[in-house]
Amino acid sequence: MIGDLWSNKTRTLLVVMSIFIGIFAVGMITSSQVVLARELRDSYIKMKPAHATIRVPNEDRFDDDLVQTIRNMPEVADAEGRSTVNVRVLLGAEDWRDLQLTAVPDYDDIRVNVFQSIRGATEPDDKTMLLERSGLRRLGLNVGDSVLVELPNGKQRTLEMSGVVHDLHQESTEFSGTFHGYVTPETMEWLGEPRDYNELLILVAGDSSDQEYNREVAELVRDKIQKSGRNPLFPQVPTPGQHPANDLISGIILLMGAMGILSVFLSGFLVTNTISALLAQQIKQIGIMKSVGAQGKQIMQMYFVLVLCFGLIALAIALPLAQLATRGFTGYIAFLLNFDLQRFDVPAQIFLVQLGIGLMVPLLAAFFPVLFGTRVTIREALSAEASAGKFGNNMIDRVIQQVRGLPRPMLISLRNTFRRKGRVVMTLVTLTLGGAIFIAIFSIQDSLLKTVDDVLESLFNYDVVISLDRTYRADYLISEAKRVPGVVDAESWNFDSVRRILPDDQESLNITMFAVPPETNAVQPRMIEGRWLLPEDQNALVISTGVLNDDPDIEVGDEIILTIRGREEPWEVVGVMQAIGSARWAYSSFEYYGRVARSVDQASNLRIFTEQRTLEYQSEVANRVEEHFKRLGINVSSTGTTMEGRQQFAARFQFIVSSLLIMSVLIAVVGGLGLAGTMSMNVLERTREIGVMRAIGASDGTVLQIVVVEGIVIGLISWMLGASLAFPISKLLSDQVGLLFFRIPLSFSFSVTGMLYWLTISMVLAALASFLPAWSASRLTVRDVLAYE
Asked: Is a pLDDT exceeding 50 seen at residue 69?
């Protein structure tokens, strides 16, 4: 067996690499799943995440007395008040970005949502701030540098960055576009903001792993705050002990796991193909062994031992490399999600799974080729009938025989392609599936980007959003915005957080209500059922699919009760619109909402349409509107553009795209190995034929042409089959990815670019896979190849 492994190093390498791919893919994916789930969970729990968060309007801020009252409640284990304000920070010339400043009362006694100091000061001095590390790279600051911030009232202050912290509870700036800073209550007062708290963080006493129990405690706390004369917003109660990105990671690992299983399946095909060729090549030796008394079981055992040797070599290579890849992949994901990895060790079960793939899968793949190959009779084996590749006996062969007008070397290539029909079918299956998946992965990427564009067009069909520090007269805001150069039109909006009163008198999860003009151009809804708002509507409501998914009892035409600013109001559901993910949105008439909320003709938001739809132009117009409003005494709290939102939205997909591209490379390697193995075996079997051709005058170039064209024909056929199969696979995977991550199918886009990439890769792989063995054979002397056995 050792001699067989060493005598044909190319074959050994191809079989080992085929097995290696499956072990490597599954090992990396399963190890990454364990490491990411464990490290994210442990890091998150260690930082004592709040079981519930309750915010109050600025006019209802509270002090330490109320916090202590909440702490004294038997259902509450601990509580902490914080003050937050949204300001803006200057990155470059006129490049203002959102910055959320949080004032912590005691940095030496942080009880909830703990964050860690990375470098610099552990507690900010007055007129300084600590910066959350995910925004550090984009700001380009060092400890001791200063930044200019602009407050909601338009005043500007300079803050020194005295330290860097890591706050796992905040979404990474790479995704949200918002920076996070931490200051003292005294600094908050210096900025012109109250030092009293507008946010309460709660740890519940008892079984905090029960989300429903946490909600009940949060409602008790909210009632307590209401009894103090304040009007708190609805509590936010996250899934206990689970980072918000956990579902995203689980979805990615599930998707990569499916691709990993496919790579194992494809590598099994390669093993089957290679062992079949090996048996065909050694058929005479099998006959000789049987003629001197060897039994079929003994010969089978010999080949199974050979397969196990292949698997052991592959394991020796794949196990350490899979762990290295795990470190790289999990490190990349941790960087994007803004958390640290402390340990990379994995349970022994992971290695047992890899061991099973490295030993059992090759044995299963080789079982039938070995079984049928060793059943050959002595007469068939010695006469080489069992190993002869035949041409001209079926319809495909007869069609090729009718081909005319091609040079003879190309005709020989075409005929040689189909001499080993079983082998070429196995190779085509591997390449076709690999190509189809490769193209599908690019189609998923295109579909993700198309989904972003469709969502922006449907739900965010404007260019600039202007958020104000309070409500102003709506028609005045619109008329003044239209005076700014570059503004084509403007709409006044409001939004609020509401809840539905359920049939059992309980309150639902939060619903974000948007009060919009019924004839709005900023929303082009995709109606699933019912209709959009009409100008004559009063209490009409259009809900999103996210609301319907959570409250399936709602039907178009139903009257539901919503709690708005402490008052219960009836609304008629007139339509259901498509939204992305689990977004719980509702749209109502701007005018009617104003009457219900007692803010008639008042608006706190503007949606603006600009002449051009580029990021630079939108940003320029946003700055112009802001400056114009400043001169009028209208305080702008933040601005945003849809193009910037598109970039942030697309950045969230980077996880998925990067993960799928990794798998596409592995699948391309599997396809290349399959073709390389087939061409190598074909050339080995035809070594004597090559010698005969050279003996009668064929040049090295002619021999190379025959073999290379054969490989290119196989590559071209596999590309055509793969491209045909890619469309339904792409659609299926695109829908499943959309449902997995966003609860809706993606807007499907078949990737022509991916198809052309695979054509290029197929041709390059075919040329290389056939050139190398053909070149080696052409270097042999005529005497050597004629004597080849």
From this structure: yes
